[in-house]
Write a structure and sequence with these properties.
Layout: H1 22-35, H2 38-59, H3 71-102, H4 104-110, H5 115-144, H6 153-177, H7 181-190
Helix pairs in contact: 1-5, 2-3, 2-5, 3-5, 3-6, 3-7, 5-6
Length: 191
């Protein structure tokens, strides 16, 4: 008995599976589409950063008698949560509802994609958007205002993860229930 090696194309790793999961393929396509959409990028990343810089510049960095901490540190934390809400309540519902309006969801069903794989891909898209926007917000805030040390990083990290998952889940639910992108925008902004 001799062992013969199977010839593999150059650049392939035998330990990696050849086919990615359906959810992974959908997520890769969604990331590519969102990166080409300037409105989504500006709203999810730019809006919280711009508001944080504006309010931090208006109110300064000196503590006042009724507010004993640096006001800009408060704005950094609050606009980090605004960014989570913007992705969960506005970006995802509008994105999913616009797919329904344009018939993309029907095409996914006709092509044999599982609804769960689409929902998981959209959920991962929202979590990745929150991660990227959060890093951008902190990278802009650090040199301008400084980022204070966390008193309890484990609880803060758990709060960020749980809050992100909750808001993304609500956003995916809204996107699947609301009939149009305008309705999703109205309900998301109201929330």
């Amino acid at each position: 008995m001799t062992n013969t090696a199977v010839a593999r194309p150059a650049g392939t790793d035998p330990s990696r599976p050849r086919n990615r999961s359906v959810t992974g393929k959908l997520l890769a396509q969604e990331l590519r589409l969102v990166s080409r959409d300037p409105f989504t990028l500006i709203f999810a990343v730019g809006f919280p950063v711009l508001c944080m810089l504006t309010l931090g510049g208006v109110f300064g960095t000196e503590p006042a008698h009724g507010f004993p901490i640096n006001p800009s540190h408060y704005y950094i934390a609050s606009y980090f949560t605004v960014m989570i809400g913007a992705v969960g309540f506005v970006m995802l519902p509008i994105h999913i509802a616009s797919y329904r309006e344009r018939g993309v969801l029907r095409r996914f069903t006709a092509a044999g994609f599982s609804r769960w794989s689409f929902l998981f891909a959209e959920s991962w898209l929202g979590l990745i958007a929150i991660g990227v926007a959060g890093v951008v917000l902190l990278l802009v805030a650090a040199p301008v205002y400084g980022v204070p040390a966390m008193q309890d990083p484990l609880r803060a990290g758990a709060g960020i993860v749980v809050g992100s998952i909750a808001f993304v889940s609500i956003g995916v639910l809204l996107g699947t229930l609301l009939p149009t992108a305008r309705a999703a925008q109205a309900v998301g902004l109201l929330l």
